[in-house]
Please model this.
Amino acid sequence: MWDKKWFGYWKQDGGLYENCPDISDWIGSESLQPCKDIVNYIEGGDLVAVSPMKTVCHICNATIDSSKVVYTDGEWLWTKDLSHYVSHHQLKLPHLFLNKMKKFNYVCPEIDENFDAMNLEHP
Model:
């Protein structure tokens, strides 16, 4: 069971992330429903950070983005490339994260303008 409030940082990214989970442990044949709604939630988060680091898929080696992007819903923190992993590789998400999505009917909630993402748990 995943007990963190962040997701999408992988040990395959190396460096500071070497103690993060191995992405292969989260890839599976388990069907995520509804995939399109999950992707919309992931891509609908509020932007927290952008790094000029190219994002390459750890499964198929495709270039996902020209930068590393981090989003939040005010509680969870995740990387933009999760949408690629969910839609192309059946990435399993933590149950608590999925429950949050369901609670908001797969529409990422708006964040208060005074919200400080530095208060969120992160790797």
Q: What stands out?
A: Strands lie at 6-7, 46-51, 55-56, 63-65, 68-72, 77-79. DSSP finds three helices and six strands in the chain. The first strand starts at residue 6 and ends at 7. The longest helix spans residues 35-43.
